[in-house]
Each structure stands twice: as C-alpha cells, then as structure tokens.
C-alpha cells in the first residue's frame, strides 16, 4: 500500500509539525523477538497504545500515521535490514520536509543494562550500524533524538553479532516487556514536552531502576 500525496499535504499543513518515530530492526519472521529488533517492537507497542495502524508500505518501510492528541505522528520500521536503515529514513524524512529535531530513532543499546531506557537529544552512533546508516543518509547530521533501549552486554567471549540476533532469556524478556511499557510513556513525554527537565528526570528514574536491581543477571 502506497502513501498518498494527500497524506503528506494533510500532515505538512497541520498546525503542529509532525514527529517521526523510527524503530530500527531487521525484517523477517526469523528476527522477531531478537535483541536487535527491539526498535521494531517499541514502535509496534506504541502504535497499539495510541491506536495507530501500521498498514502503509513506502520508503522501504512499514509505516503508520495518526494523531496523539492534536499532534501528528508518523511511525516507521525500515525494512532494509539494520545496516541499511538510512536508505529508508533519509528519503522518508525528506519527503515530509521534517527538521531533524522532529525525528526520534528507537534502537537497541548494549551499553545500557537490559531493560534500562535512555532518552537522548542527540549523539554519535556508538558503533551501532543502524545509526551509522541513518546518520550517513542525514548527511552526517547527528542532531536527532534517540530512545535507547538497553539489552546488556554479551556474556563472556560471546560473539556480539550472535548476541544481537538471539532471543531474550525468560528473565530478560520480563525486563524488556516492562521497558516497552515505560517506553510508551517516554515517547508520549517526547510529544508533550521539549527537551529539558522532564527528560532528565526520566533518565534519572531509569538509572535508579537499574540500581534497585541488586544483582545483575545476564540477559
């Protein structure tokens, strides 16, 4: 199903400028539920929570459009495979003529403990290949927001690539499910307020959530 020109015109003439939430992952059933696909999961959970149907296909992405309150929102899951995510996100952002301060990318992060979230106003790619591709197609610009979802580090000498493509253990899955619910609230926070104190407080709460976990159990 293709997006129509009317769809773009409606969004771009809205009183409020749209937000674009991009979730990174790999297409195909065999990747469902893997650590590297948590960006896809977050978009799906958010879409369901706010009643946006992910029933459009364009710009090499599965997409949904709708409103959260009076704010227009575009949700997208690039289907290019993780390392080529920018081939979708670049043209999509250009089509809607969005400034990068209205773009947020949701992705997995091995530098955060499993189930811990972090809202970030901007930053580098942190060796995340999906973010590398997105930044490349944004002409090297890194001035876009991120919702980082912690998946933990590979245990022992495990190959990082194998770790990313594994499904979560039962305990880790419980933590991730809780994180997805908190992620919905984080994305609503993005829509309701600018960067600032509310974002900082969210990140502090996430930090202390991790500290309350007295023992760190490998995901």
UniProtKB/TrEMBL annotation:
GO MF: peptidyl-tRNA hydrolase activity
Pfam families per the UniProt record, alphabetical: Pept_tRNA_hydro (PF01195)
Entry-linked InterPro entries: Pept_tRNA_hydro, Pept_tRNA_hydro_CS, Pept_tRNA_hydro_sf
Coiled coil (residue ranges): none
Entry similarity comment: Belongs to the PTH family.
HAMAP family named among the record's database cross-references: Pept_tRNA_hydro_bact (MF_00083)
Name of the protein described by the UniProt record: Peptidyl-tRNA hydrolase, mitochondrial
Natural source organism: Brassica carinata (Ethiopian mustard)
């Amino acid at each position: 199903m293709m997006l129509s020109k009317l769809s773009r015109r409606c969004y771009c003439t809205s009183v409020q400028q749209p937000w674009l939430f991009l979730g990174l992952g790999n297409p195909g059933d065999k990747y469902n539920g893997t650590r590297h696909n948590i960006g896809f999961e977050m978009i799906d959970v958010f879409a369901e929570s706010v009643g946006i149907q992910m029933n459009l296909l364009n710009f090499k992405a599965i997409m949904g459009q709708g409103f959260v309150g009076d704010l227009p929102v575009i949700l997208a899951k690039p289907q290019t495979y993780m390392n080529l995510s920018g081939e979708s996100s670049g043209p999509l952002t250009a089509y809607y003529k969005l400034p990068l301060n209205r773009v947020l990318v949701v992705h997995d992060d091995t530098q955060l403990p499993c189930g811990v979230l972090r809202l970030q106003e901007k930053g580098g790619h942190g060796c995340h290949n999906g973010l590398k591709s997105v930044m490349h197609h944004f002409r090297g610009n890194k001035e876009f927001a991120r919702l980082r979802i912690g998946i933990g580090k590979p245990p022992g000498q495990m190959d990082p690539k194998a770790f990313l493509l594994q499904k979560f253990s039962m305990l880790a899955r419980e933590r991730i499910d809780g994180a997805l619910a908190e992620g919905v609230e984080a994305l609503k926070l993005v829509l309701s307020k600018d960067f600032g104190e509310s974002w900082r407080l969210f990140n502090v709460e996430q930090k202390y959530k991790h500290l309350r976990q007295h023992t760190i159990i490998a995901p």
